[in-house]
């Protein structure tokens, strides 16, 4: 799909921004559903598509926005506090300049989930010092961000290490295990690692996993939303 926002058309941006503002003004946003045709209420994506099943793929094509970012924005809408969620679709639409190349935003967001000094999983997982696996994943995403071919041995080694982590996590039994920050960080890391493939749902699933790791702190959800907007605003315009 062409990743250039709004197909480089300012009028198309205004169309989607106006729809978001209309639904905010009429209090038509609602969590927990895509679109209710009888009540004419829906979520962030549903109010644009008016599709009871979401319609993310079609919206991605018509809006010029990668599907994984629409699904991420939809998940954030559900997670944000009520005072913020109604403003969120308009803020998301407004952050993207027509013609901006959004193809790299998913990788930037994954790096933030993992390595932000305050909110990254690596920071959460430092209960007993920095775990080597986090450092190895950081090196992997450094290569990825530069668009370099990943050495096969690096990917195989990391995949094996994280699969071992998955098996260890499957043996959790006690509540004390779930309460440990380092173990929650490891669990979320396994989901973020899968998102390197950039399938449409994986970025949103990684964001949800990290919110769970941070015990669904409201401040963390707000931080996720703000950093996504920052990446969208800073995407290069071509």
What does it look like?
This protein is an all-alpha fold. The chain contains 14 helices and 2 strands. It is globular.
Task: Give a short synopsis of this structure.
Helix content is 62%, strand content 2%.
Largest beta sheet: strand ordering: 1-2
Q: Which strand-content bin applies to the residues?
A: under 5%
- Could you spell the SSE succession in H and E letters? HEEHHHHHHHHHHHHH
- Molecular shape: globular
Main sheet?
Answer: 2 strands, antiparallel
Q: Please state the structural category.
A: mainly alpha
* Low-pLDDT segments: none
Alpha carbon gap, first and last residue: 16 Å
* Approximate helicity band: 55-70%
Task: Give the integer mean of the pLDDT values.
Answer: 87
What oligomeric state do the depicted chains represent?
single chain
How large is the count of helical segments? 14
What is the domain total for the residues?
2
Rg = 19 Å
Task: Say how many strands there are.
Answer: 2
What are the salient characteristics of this protein?
single chain; two-stranded antiparallel ribbon; 238 residues; globular; 2 strands; mainly alpha
What does the secondary structure layout of this molecule look like, with pairings?
Blueprint lengths: L9 H16 L9 E2 L4 E2 L3 H4 L6 H8 L3 H13 L2 H4 L2 H8 L9 H11 L5 H4 L7 H14 L6 H18 L5 H5 L1 H14 L7 H12 L4 H16 L5
Helix pairs in contact: 1-6, 4-13, 6-14, 7-9, 7-13, 7-14, 9-10, 10-12, 12-13
